[in-house]
Structure to design on (1445 residues):
């Protein structure tokens, strides 16, 4: 069995040090030279905040002004999930195997925390319109709740089929795309929210995004988490 | 309806694969295959329409969200963007057709379809983006899908190669993102059109460009940062190798060119373009010599990519001076990217056919291939013509323009590099073609294992791409004209 | 499209189309392949003859042409009289060679590949003949380079692969030099169309003398390899590993003539009087003169029949180069005429080599004793061709040598007479011994009574073509004075090529 | 020296630390950690820039960028870790280079 | 900004850098990951200091939470068969104390 040496050979470390010194010098000089007068796009964002349909500037940027970035970002998340699934030993993306590691204390805690976290995420989703929060934060909390549940040994509920899991993973992106196309059909451009519907549509997108982000984060963990059974089997058959 | 399509064209082009991708995942492999094929077919008229539209009316600007830059994100389709979309779409179609035969309905590769469609969409998004932060997201999308595709075979080599690729790609993205941060800090925008007016070669501007260049060069695998490419490209499943070499490396290169030629107009670094040129020349020699030393077909082709990437970077020193030389270097560089995309994908697909059929790709074991798989041998030969830059091939037209630009700008040494590089390419192409035309290997084990011809769709798709790279050499003028449509000011000779 | 342009495009297109069909048919459908090949070759003959008729009708300034935009020059074809001559030679000999090759290759493997690439080669040669500018010329020139490779290494033996490598080692760098020269010239002089009397602006001689000389060197380096100009000739003997039809049509006609034809285009129709003014054609003439002697001397020493023929080709090609490099219309006519004359004679000889090796497995001159008894028709044809090459009237070779000699005096280059004289003696010295052996030495016992009773002396598909080409060679010499003979045609062309 | 300067400099330092770690630590897990630290460095630069004009509300654009960046980073981290684990399962080591393995084996054996 | 604010910021930044170095220098992967999670939590704190509560929320949940869980799982996976760096107990003792800085 192979072992990994903790250090690289000295010449590599010296070269790396030299490179890092160069990059560091370049970077420090550059960040210190950034003018304190360049206001960037903040005034423009402020001026258009009204028209964006939400009051939280960050949410306005993420969902409206630069909603396209966010659309692609969900694609990144989905991609990572598909990638992780393609690497997982079973390639099934199910929740079951984790159950083997149940821990009573953790599971009690999870039983208490999970509903609270779902509530919190709902709040974050709603609050994102005017205060810190939004789909990502909400989705992360849902994801965290899911991971906690998984860690504490809760198996995948029987009613969640594999298809449903895939649907949960992709629904955010699909709804986002559907809304985008709908806006185009309605006469606008890609992701151009009609003024009167902006808030509603954004909330719709965000809601499904929250579901997807949660499902994705959990799946990332579950699919990548090594099934205990598999581990035992493999550690028996040494190379 | 027609008017609507024309208006929404840039968005539709991107949405096609991006709509198909989640569906292909959601509905599973059984539906993934037809979905991919339909998406590939529907993309063709869209890309063609986009190219025609651009050649008629010049740059198309599509304001996503209706805000317009710099607040919103613009899709910008000028000549070069339209060309890249077109080549992506064409290569994409043939790779899709090939992959249908190559993967069949093997359960293990069911994730290929959504990943490939995501990669396709990401590339299109990248080529059309007019916003440097949006480009960061596109880069990440491209890398993530590309890495996942490399690892699909789950062989040890492929996994390690994917990991190496992944680390290089993330690091490259981080360098790029740092540059974006500095640019936003110093110049207050991430919209290319706005930046073009305000960007300066001051401390921050230079540092930003330097960081972004390092990141993109790492992702493009320019010598000496090419270490990750040969293992990744050679160990990936062949349709993936084809896409990686043909399109993915061009993605980061495309951003680099946009930054330098279009946005910064090379003003920021007078000397750096020479450095890039020298690295490009070194890549040509190093990659070719390494290719010559390979015993495995796919490794050879992968090192050939390292070499061919070098040509792309010769564009920088030739474009810097402006004038007619810049225009020639510009068309030459872009045309090289296009013809290499067709030829290299053809080569990898041909190598894949060999690998799938004989179970190995050791060159010495492939003697007499022209007898056993004539179409595949022919594909390799025709694609080789473009690698060598001989007429009639797209590679020839590209090299013609580069040689022209070298002499025009008084930098004749680049012409010597171009010609010498072509000869080295000939050396490694004929290293393969010789045995193909030669006798069968003494030990005929391979032939005994030969399960018979591959599906004609596979051989046909590869051959079509190779022929495409050849046709470009004679019928390439419309493409050359398209590349110059709304070309950057530096290239078009317009004083900004 | 008028019939003229149809003929022009058809002449180039027909062989390529034939190639595509042959590749598509695959290895095993021999009968269909033969039919298509013959039909394609016949169609090509019709097209090139029609193009030649059109060229003659349109001469000297209304040649039929066709083209598409490519780069800043354009990819364009034109049927002028000089090109038509080469095209007709290539087309007609292809038809004959096809018959020969069907016979020769009947037992060989990879026939689809062979005939496919063969057609590509012929198409490129005709394309070279009918190119309107250097870019188009270069495109076909390189296609020819590449398409020849699979033919050279056809047998797939290590020796063949080595020959192929040698060929590429010469041909590919030459292509690079040619490309660089064409691009450079194009930058200095703008799009260069071929034009009788030279197309370069005379003022360039004073503004860019150095560049023009360098470009000339690059261009001649490029085409000189195929023209087997010393010291670029080394690939030709090595390429003799190829099957006989390849040596016959390609290494005696299409490929090597493409080289000298390129020299003719460059010297006469690009540089024109500038070449003389810059002093580059004089150097070229001297080089050609040396190559003539060198090739002949080397031929003397070869026992391998095909190698002897190959070195003879090296020498004979330089007659053409020499002719066009001399500043005299008569010499130019001699050079151009020799392009056709040598083709007919040398292809006969290579056909002979193939027929002999297939029929009696004789590969060396020393194995030819008494061969005349065994294969009388074949050796008669060979002898006729050999006499022609030596320059004995009335066979074609005499006419071209005569024109060359007169022309050299006209051009004031008397030394050429000496070269011609020495060369003729050497030609005789390496060909007459073969004739002598074949007819006057004692044959092997099994050859003494001729071919087996009731059987022809060999595969008639091979014998008939070589008799035909020998007859053509004889006819070219006998009918040199007739208006449509190559010699007269060449004199008409030369009159325009040398208006200065 | 402003708060922006402090945090952008810290970001630069973190980026470089991550870079060094990525180049010198052979273990894949360390490399993933290094990239995460570098990412954090880049985010510090961005958020620092968002506050470059003293006394105003921070620029929301870099914040949005960082949010996007965090999501991207966690995606890549998850995928990279899955890859690393799979490599470990297949090869029994968690390094890119087989030579890194040999060195230790000699030393430890 | 107040003096105490400065002190806090400088301490925070210093700790962050220290944790980053420690996490990368630590040979025991479990410890390294724990150090990294601590790093992530402090990063979230820094976002609060920089008036970026949106990011702070996401960082706490994703950066420290999910990433931490993923990292711990990865360590566990590699532990499942072998110790992260040294693969045998003896080897661990010999190199365990070696903190590469």
């Amino acid at each position: 069995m192979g072992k990994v040496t903790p250090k690289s050979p000295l010449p590599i470390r010296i070269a790396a040090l030299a490179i890092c010194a160069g990059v560091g010098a370049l970077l420090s000089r550059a960040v210190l030279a950034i003018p304190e007068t360049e206001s960037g796009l903040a005034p423009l964002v402020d001026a258009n905040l009204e028209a964006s349909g939400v009051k939280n500037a960050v949410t306005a940027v993420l969902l409206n002004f630069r909603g396209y970035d966010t659309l692609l970002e969900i694609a990144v998340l989905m991609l990572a999930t598909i990638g992780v699934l393609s690497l997982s030993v079973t390639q099934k993306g199910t929740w079951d195997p984790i159950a083997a590691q149940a821990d009573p204390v953790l599971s009690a805690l999870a039983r208490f925390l999970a509903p609270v976290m779902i509530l919190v995420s709902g709040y974050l989703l709603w609050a994102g319109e005017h205060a810190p929060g939004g789909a990502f934060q909400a989705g992360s909390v849902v994801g965290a709740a899911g991971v906690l549940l998984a860690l504490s040994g809760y198996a995948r509920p029987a009613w969640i089929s594999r298809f449903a899991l895939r649907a949960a993973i992709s629904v955010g992106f699909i709804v986002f795309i559907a809304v985008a196309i709908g806006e185009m059909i309605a006469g606008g451009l890609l992701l151009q929210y009609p003024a009167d519907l902006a808030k509603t549509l954004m909330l719709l997108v965000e809601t499904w995004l929250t579901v997807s982000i949660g499902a994705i984060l959990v799946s990332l963990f579950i699919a990548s988490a090594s099934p205990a059974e598999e581990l035992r089997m493999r550690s028996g058959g040494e190379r | 309806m027609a008017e609507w399509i024309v208006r929404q064209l840039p968005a539709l082009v991107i949405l096609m694969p991006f709509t198909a991708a989640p569906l292909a995942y959601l509905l599973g492999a059984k539906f993934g295959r037809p979905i991919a094929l339909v998406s590939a077919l529907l993309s063709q008229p869209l890309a063609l329409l986009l190219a025609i539209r651009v050649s008629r009316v010049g740059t198309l600007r599509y304001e996503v969200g209706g805000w317009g830059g710099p607040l919103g994100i613009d899709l910008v389709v000028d000549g070069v963007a339209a060309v890249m979309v077109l080549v992506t779409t064409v290569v994409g179609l043939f790779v899709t057709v090939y992959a249908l035969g190559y993967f069949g309905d093997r359960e293990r590769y069911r994730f290929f379809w959504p990943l490939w469609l995501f990669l396709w969409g990401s590339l299109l998004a990248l080529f059309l983006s007019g916003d440097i932060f949006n480009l960061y997201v596109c880069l990440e999308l491209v890398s993530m899908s590309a890495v996942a595709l490399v690892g699909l075979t789950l062989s040890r080599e492929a996994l390690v190669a994917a990991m190496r690729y992944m680390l290089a790609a993330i690091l490259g993205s981080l360098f790029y993102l740092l540059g974006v941060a500095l640019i936003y800090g110093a110049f207050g925008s991430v919209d290319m059109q706005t930046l073009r007016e305000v960007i300066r070669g001051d401390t921050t501007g230079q540092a930003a460009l330097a960081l972004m260049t390092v990141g993109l060069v790492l992702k493009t695998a320019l010598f000496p940062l090419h270490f990750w490419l040969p293992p990744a490209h050679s160990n990936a499943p062949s349709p993936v190798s084809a896409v990686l070499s043909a399109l993915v490396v061009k993605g980061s290169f495309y951003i680099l060119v946009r930054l330098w030629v279009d946005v910064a107009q090379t003003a920021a670094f007078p000397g750096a373009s020479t450095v890039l040129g020298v690295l490009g020349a070194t890549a040509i020699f190093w990659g070719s010599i390494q290719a010559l030393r390979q015993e495995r077909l796919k490794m050879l082709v992968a090192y050939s990519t390292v070499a061919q990437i070098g040509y792309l970077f010769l564009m920088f020193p030739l474009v810097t001076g402006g004038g007619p030389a810049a225009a020639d270097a510009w068309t030459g560089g872009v045309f090289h990217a296009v013809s290499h995309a067709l030829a290299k994908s053809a080569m990898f697909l041909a190598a894949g056919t060999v690998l799938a059929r004989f179970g190995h790709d050791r060159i010495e074991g492939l003697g007499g291939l022209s007898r056993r798989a004539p179409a595949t041998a022919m594909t390799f030969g025709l694609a080789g013509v473009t690698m060598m830059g001989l007429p009639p091939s797209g590679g020839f037209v590209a090299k013609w323009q580069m040689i022209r630009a070298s002499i025009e700008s008084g930098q004749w040494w680049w012409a010597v590099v171009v010609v010498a590089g072509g000869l080295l390419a000939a050396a490694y192409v004929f290293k393969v073609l010789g045995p193909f035309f030669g006798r069968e290997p003494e030990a005929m084990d391979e032939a005994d294992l030969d399960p018979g011809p591959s599906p004609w769709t596979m051989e046909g798709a590869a051959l079509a791409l190779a022929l495409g790279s050849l046709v470009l050499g004679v019928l390439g003028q419309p493409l050359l004209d398209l590349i110059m449509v709304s070309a950057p000011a530096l290239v078009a000779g317009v004083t900004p | 499209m008028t019939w003229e342009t149809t003929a022009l495009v058809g002449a180039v297109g027909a062989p390529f189309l034939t190639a595509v069909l042959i590749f598509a048919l695959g290895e095993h459908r021999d009968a269909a392949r033969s039919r298509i090949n013959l039909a394609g070759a016949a169609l090509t003959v019709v097209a090139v003859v029609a193009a030649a008729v059109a060229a003659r009708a349109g001469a000297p300034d209304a040649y039929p042409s066709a083209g598409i935009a490519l780069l800043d020059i354009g990819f364009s074809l034109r049927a002028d009289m000089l090109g038509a001559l080469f095209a007709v030679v290539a087309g007609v000999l292809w038809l004959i060679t096809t018959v020969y090759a069907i016979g020769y290759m009947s037992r060989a493997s990879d026939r689809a590949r062979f005939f496919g690439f063969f057609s590509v080669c012929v198409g490129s040669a005709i394309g070279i003949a009918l190119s309107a500018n250097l870019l188009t010329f270069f495109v076909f020139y390189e296609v020819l380079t590449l398409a020849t490779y699979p033919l050279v290494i056809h047998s797939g033996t290590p020796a063949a692969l080595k020959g192929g490598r040698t060929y590429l080692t010469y041909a590919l760098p030459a292509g690079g030099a040619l490309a660089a020269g064409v691009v450079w010239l194009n930058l200095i002089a703008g799009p260069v169309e071929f034009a009788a009397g030279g197309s370069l602006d005379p003022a360039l001689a004073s503004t860019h003398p150095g560049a023009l000389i360098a470009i000339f060197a690059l261009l001649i380096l490029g085409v000189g390899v195929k023209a087997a100009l010393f010291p670029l000739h080394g690939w030709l003997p090595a390429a003799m590993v190829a099957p006989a039809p390849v040596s016959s049509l390609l290494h005696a006609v299409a490929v090597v003539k493409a080289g000298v034809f390129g020299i003719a285009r460059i010297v006469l129709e690009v540089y024109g009087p500038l070449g003389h003014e810059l002093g580059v054609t004089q150097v070229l003439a001297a080089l050609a003169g040396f190559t003539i002697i060198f090739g002949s001397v080397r031929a003397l020493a070869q026992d391998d029949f095909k190698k002897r023929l190959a070195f003879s080709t090296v020498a004979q090609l330089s007659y053409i180069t020499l002719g066009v490099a001399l500043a005299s219309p008569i010499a130019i006519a001699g050079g151009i005429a020799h392009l056709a004359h040598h083709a007919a004679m040398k292809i006969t000889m290579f056909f002979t080599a193939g027929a002999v090796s297939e029929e009696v497995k004789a590969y060396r001159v020393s194995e030819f004793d008494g061969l005349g008894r065994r294969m009388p028709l074949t050796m008669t044809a060979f002898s006729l061709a050999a006499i022609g090459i030596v320059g004995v009237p009335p066979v074609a070779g005499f006419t071209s040598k005569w024109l060359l000699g007169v022309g050299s005096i006209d051009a004031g280059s008397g030394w050429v007479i000496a070269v011609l004289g020495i060369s003729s003696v050497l030609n005789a010295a390496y060909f007459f011994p073969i004739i002598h052996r074949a007819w006057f030495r004692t044959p092997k016992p099994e050859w003494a009574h001729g071919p087996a009773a009731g059987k022809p002396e060999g595969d008639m598909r091979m014998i008939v073509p070589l008799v035909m080409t020998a007859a053509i060679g004889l006819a070219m010499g006998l009918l040199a004075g007739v208006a449509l003979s190559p010699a007269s045609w060449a004199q008409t062309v030369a009159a325009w090529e040398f208006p200065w | 020296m402003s708060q922006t300067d402090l945090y952008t400099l810290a970001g630069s330092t973190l980026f470089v630390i991550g870079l060094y770690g990525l180049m010198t630590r052979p273990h894949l897990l360390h490399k993933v950690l290094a990239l995460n630290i570098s990412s954090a460095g880049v985010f510090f630069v961005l958020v620092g820039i968002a506050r470059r004009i003293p006394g105003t509300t921070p620029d929301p654009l870099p914040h949005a960028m960082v949010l996007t960046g965090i999501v991207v980073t966690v995606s890549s981290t998850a995928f990279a870790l899955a890859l690393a684990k799979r490599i470990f399962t297949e090869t029994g080591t968690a390094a890119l280079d087989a030579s890194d393995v040999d060195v230790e084996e000699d030393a430890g054996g | 900004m107040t003096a105490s604010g400065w002190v806090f910021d400088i301490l925070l930044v210093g700790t962050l850098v220290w944790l980053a170095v420690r996490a990368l220098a630590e040979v025991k992967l479990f410890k390294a990951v724990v150090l990294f999670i601590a790093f992530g939590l402090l990063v979230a704190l820094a976002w609060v200091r920089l008036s970026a509560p949106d990011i702070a929320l996401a960082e706490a949940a994703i950066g420290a939470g999910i990433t931490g869980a993923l990292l711990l799982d990865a360590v566990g996976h590699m532990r499942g068969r072998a110790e992260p760096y040294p693969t045998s107990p003896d080897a661990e003792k010999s190199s365990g104390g070696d903190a590469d800085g």
